[in-house]
Amino acid sequence: MADLVNNFIVLEEDTQSGRYLTFNLGKEFFGIEIKYVTEIINMMPITSVPGLPNYIKGIINLRGRIIPVMDIRLRFNMNVLEYNDRTCIIVALIDNTDIGFIVDSVSEVLTIPESDIVDPPEMNKSSNKFIKGIGKVGEDIKLLLDYHSLLSCDDAEIFTNLAGG
Amino acid sequence: MISVLVVDDAAFMRLAIKNVLEKSGFKVIADAKNGQEGIEKFLEFQPDIVTMDITMPDMTGIEALKKIREIDPAAKVVMISAMGQERMVKEAILSGAKSFIVKPYKEEHITQTLMKIATSK
Amino acid sequence: MGEQYNGDSLLEMFVFETTQNTEQLEKIILETENERHFSDSAINEIFRIMHTIKGSAAMMSYSYIASLAHKAEDLFFFIRENSSIEYNSSLISDLILLCMDFISSEVNKIKENTELDINGADEIIIQIEKCLEDIKVGKNSNPKEISNNLPSYSFKAILYYEEGCEMENIRAYSFIRDFEEYVQNISYNPEGIIDNDDTAFEIRKNGFLVFFDSNKSYNELNDIIMQTPFIKDIDLTLLDIEKCSHECTDIKPEDKKDVKNVLIQNEEIHNNKAENHQSAQSIISINVSKLDKLMNLIGEVVIAESMVVENPDLKGLELQSFRREALQLHKIIVEMQDMVMSMRLVPLTTTFQKMHRIVRDMSKKLGKEVMLEFIGEETEVDKNIIEHLSNPLLHLVRNSIDHGLEMPEERITAGKSPEGKVTLEAYNSGSNVFILAKDDGRGLNKEKILAKAKKNNILFKPESEMTDRDIYNMIFMPGFSTNENVSEFSGRGVGMDVVMQNILSIGGAVTVDSIERQGTTVTMKIPLTVAIIDGMNISVGDRHFTIPITAIRESFKPKKNDIICDTDGNLMIMVRGECYAIIKLHQQWDIETEIQELTDGILIMIEQDERRRCVFADTLIGQQQVVVKSMPDFIRRTRMVEGVAGCTLLGNGSISLILDTGWLMNAEIK
Question: pLDDT tens digits, residue range A76-92?
Fold first, then answer.
């Protein structure tokens, strides 16, 4: 019985692994593993919270759930773009933490096999640490995001230390 | 030490119960392979408590239980039954069995039940 | 909330249940009146109902109702045990109906809070006694003794059998057979256990419910029952005397065992006073997860509403009637929201009342006289928090009685009344609920605590630097114990750190204060993360904030003349001769707003820990009851947010941040 359940879970994960939701920031395309994504919503009013770094825009009320939202552009130190009606929030559940990512627009769900993913080149680019791989889809490339470093509070901690002196 | 008489027609079960009990500090002072022998051993050894299989050839556990209770109305007999023997178990309880254990059992079921029965008044 | 409902949930339950029971009884009597004899099931049912009424009435201290029900119970017990006996069923029916009428009219008076007819039962009791005597005399053989002369109490026990033990019904039967040697007046549910194998399933699921009377002590009975093979757990409750039990008799076991439930008092959420006397109160239990779901759904409704009303398609249209109806819809939705929120709230009453039990047991056992007092027990707390409070309170009350209160002689010598007092107090303050457990006992002994701490090597700073408070609070450190004698109730004194753990787990804090020879007070501060507060909503620019009403002294438009600027450029305001610092929210948090001048906005005076400051905001939006939600984990983990105690959803679905009043008091003003 337990085996059955386990098999089922493995199976379900199988159908989702290698599948990515792609979105774009300007001309660049990114992919995030779909198994973390819980929903995609249109831009909605964000309540800012004092004290947070600029890329954490604040919190939203998603049907009674309070969810923090992060602007991926700002997280990558890209230039600010005014939100428009294509701007989306990708809501994800990672390690039991709800979080929303603000992106320019979402495009499609793709399957990128392991064999088409290469490690990111060693470059001294600030956004690089958030990329865990580069997926090749035909002629295009998609930058695959590393959720954990996106959420890590490394710089947050530095910030606190500075502030706390 | 609590003395126990084990009545069961299956040698394997007798041994299994004996192992469990002795591991937990009971003293299995005798065993018997049918009801009649059970009654004789009961008279001979006067155990604190009896475990009694229900279905046995010649004389069933229930008949033996009734006889034992006639001999000693305070006798403490715990029935060992298989699943689905509701009717028999009922009869046993109505005939004065203290409790019953359903096979397949867990070791602690036997030890705890016997301990509780033996230490109650 | 407090104004709408100051209820005593136990009393409501009593009224509700007794009303139902009397109605049921009346039905049975009327159905069987034409028969010459009561059927067995009718007798059992009447017996059971009387037994239940007796138990709950005794618990609520309506002893005259209890005695009446007891007499009626005796009568039916006799009839039940002597099935061949002759009796005049119509006479008995009359008698029982008389009984019922009396009880229901008294219950009505209890509900209406009018004067009770305490002696009214005597006449009926005499009649029942006479009737019972007549029946007994009518029979030749010697009837069984009904009850012995020792004082005996009524109990309720729910037995839970071990999983997989099989044939629970037969086990239950065997239990009853053996148990009858120890107790009297046994009745149980489900009935017919030996004949009906389906009851095994019922017992497995709900436990086996047994009512009985006994003159044995609670602990003795507990031990006897636990001695039964395959009993995993029991829930033994004393039903009789005083109001010392924590539940009404007929809550179905599954309600309390399996799912998290919350009692919903239909009545209390109707603040319509006109309804008060007409309808019987109906109380049902609901799974908390359904309430959570409902709360989220209401949130969606609120958002959907604003999306409809603010729909861009409506722009430029003449919408007078639409707006009017939309406003009506809005009102209804707001009301719904309030109601859903209030459903999750449970007064602390029941939790507090559970303590009567331990007080009674312990005072008897230890020979101490103890009075238990409640203050503010109607304070409402979220269901989720209530669940974490019982254990800590139990530990604290135990500790107070066991170690805090002195023996009567010692108290008299110390010039105190022989009766010790334990007080449980609750109140809302700022963004917290405070729960205090006080006793007027001997207080904590500093020297002993210090000695013990040294011995266990848990001194966390040099002794000379420790305040009294520091010393006292060491009792909450793991493994600490000042108990000279281990006792049955407080064990080895591991209780205090358990209290600490429990309260910490819900984000609270515990402190202890003590005055030697005068007593000890343990204060538990519970955050409002899931509670509801009265909040004042304010705005700064396009942002909304909420300040707990309890922290607000007043709000006012400052006059230019009262504003003072000191040499460092700090702004202050003079109010009735006192000077208060001003914290400008927009400046503090860089919020864009047109309201920059003090005279254009509003000042809100906040008080905490006897200190005051004024908060400057654009405007007050209004007062509202708000459900406090905690900030998302992700944000809390950054530990970068200061001054925000949580957040709440406003009627239109937008989020308002709840200000941390402690921070407002202490923040460095920018």
Answer: 888 888 888 889 999 99
Q: What is the Cα–Cα distance from C489 to C480, expressed in whole angstroms? A: 17
Strand partners, A61: A66
Task: Report the CATH fold assignment for A16-164.
Answer: OB fold (Dihydrolipoamide Acetyltransferase, E2P) (2.40.50)
Of C167, C178, C228, the CB nearest to B89: C167
* Kind plus residue range of the DSSP H or E element containing C364: helix C349-366
Environment class of C240 (CB within 10 Å of its CB; exposed 0-12, middle 13-18, buried 19+)? buried
Tens-place pLDDT, residues C184-234: 888 888 888 888 888 888 888 888 988 888 888 888 888 888 888 888 888
ipTM of the complex: 0.81
CATH class of C153-258: alpha beta
Out of C170, C227, C228, name the one closest to residue B93 (CB): C170
Subunits next to B (3 or more Cβ pairs <8 Å) are C
Kindly tell me whether chain B and chain C come into contact, counting contact as 3+ Cβ pairs under 8 Å: yes
Distance CA C654, CA C307 (A): 12
Q: How open is the CA angle C426-C428-C431, to the nearest 5 degrees?
A: 135
Kindly state whether A83 is in contact with chain C, defined as any CB-CB distance less than 8 angstroms.
Answer: no
Which residues in chain C are contacts of A96 at CB distance < 8 A? 633
- In CATH terms, the fold of domain C9-138 is Four Helix Bundle (Hemerythrin (Met), subunit A) (1.20.120)
Subunits adjacent to chain C (3 or more Cβ pairs under 8 Å): A, B
| Chain A residues whose beta carbon lies within 8 Å of the beta carbon of residue C632 | 59, 66-68, 97-99
Chain C closest CA to A77's CA: distance in Å? 19
Domains in chain C: boundaries: 9-138, 153-258, 265-343, 347-527, 532-666
